[in-house]
Every structure is written in C-alpha cells, then in structure tokens.
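Dear colleagues,

For the upcoming journal club I promised to circulate an example of a predicted protein-ligand complex. I picked one with glutathione because it came up in last month's discussion. The inputs are reproduced below in full, followed by the predicted structure.
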Amino acid sequence: MSELKLWGRATSSNVQKVLWMLGETGMDCQRIDAGGEFGVVNTDAYAKLNPNRKVPVLEDGDLVLYESHAILRYLARKYRQLLPDDPHWAIVDQWIDWSSTTLTPPLIGVFFQTVRLPLPKRDAAVLDAHAKVLRGVMRILDGRLGGHTWLAGDVFTLADIAAGTLMYRYFEMDIEREDLADVARWYGQLQNRPFYRDVVMTSYESLREK
Ligand SMILES: N[C@@H](CCC(=O)N[C@@H](CS)C(=O)NCC(=O)O)C(=O)O
C-alpha cells in the first residue's frame, strides 16, 4: 500500500472528516498543512492537484482526489472499511449526500455569521434565514435518529462521519438550539469515539477573520 498523503489544515471540517476516518480505521497518512493561514492552495502546483484550490486533497500513489466525501468513499471501498454490504451502502450514500446538500449549507451559513466573519461583516437577516432552515434540517436529523442508533442504521458508517463532523460546530456555536433528544444522544455517541475528540473537537478560534 502506497503512503497516503493528505493536503489540508487540521481546522477544516472537511479535512477533519478524512482524518477521523483514517483514525477509526488505523490507516497511516502524512498530512501537509494547506489552506487558510498556510496558503499553498494559491500555488500553481496546488491548482494541478485541485483546480478549486480547496482542501482536502488525498494522494494515494498516482491517484489524486478532492471532495471530502469522494475521499471517504474511496478509502472505504478500496480498504473495505466503514461501509456496509450492498444494498445498505445506498442508505449511507443517501445520508452523505444529504449532509452535503441539506445540512452543510445552513449550518456553515450560521457558522460564518456567528464565528468566522468579523462583526461589521455579519448580517442579522442572513443569520436568521440560515438559522430557520437549520432548525428544520436538524428536526429531520432527529427524526431519522429516533429510529436508528447510527445515521445509516445499526452500525457506525461514513454517514456518521460526514454529518457528525459538523455537530461539533453546531453544538459549540452561540445559537438557540431546540431540544432534540436523539441528536443529543447521537452526539454523545460521537463524543465517545476517541478520534472524534482528537480530530474534530478542536479549537476553531484561528478561523475567526479579523
Ligand atoms: N465540497 C468540498 C469543500 C471543500 C472546502 O470548501 N474546503 C474549505 C475548508 S472546509 C477550503 O478549502 N477553504 C479554503 C481554505 O481553507 O483556504 C469538500 O467537501 O471537500
């Protein structure tokens, strides 16, 4: 097995998803700081790896891959980890896509309006709009977890990594949160996983723009 190389700063939630998976599965990987305060993404060499100039990027031998969820799926399929047997992987895929399309936009929208942007750049109307959407989305998550131990069913999978990584930001942000018992129970389960604590539950203070 060639050495895995992961480009991306450890404060990026999308990098954290990959680091969490690597930790859960005991895969070795060399991480190289890139993005944010580290730059690198603006170089021509990096654009060849990812023309979007975003992190993470995974290199596995000749393979260069970007998009955090594509990286999770690649590692899971290649190394047969954290993905249940057919046809249940479709449910995992469903919740990974749901995380990208439905959970991430309002949650990161609220994160920008309450953490990342400096006060003069914040907009109360934008915050309200994102917060309103997020409330509905979190109820959907709670409904799903009401009938299932983990997001895709009885076992921990990539779906928990994709959606669960964002829960640290959700629960740490200074916002009103509804009482969602099953989301709270699931978040407790995530916090019991050592790599969640090591990789995801880390300070994001350096992300506050001055
Ligand atoms: N859909 C992409 C999003 C990648 C993305 O937006 N990454 C952010 C960090 S979370 C980034 O690279 N921001 C610019 C930077 O850090 O310089 C993925 O899942 O990998």
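Two points we might discuss: The two ends are 43 Å apart (CA to CA). The chain has two domains: 4-79, 89-193.

See you all on Thursday,
B. R.
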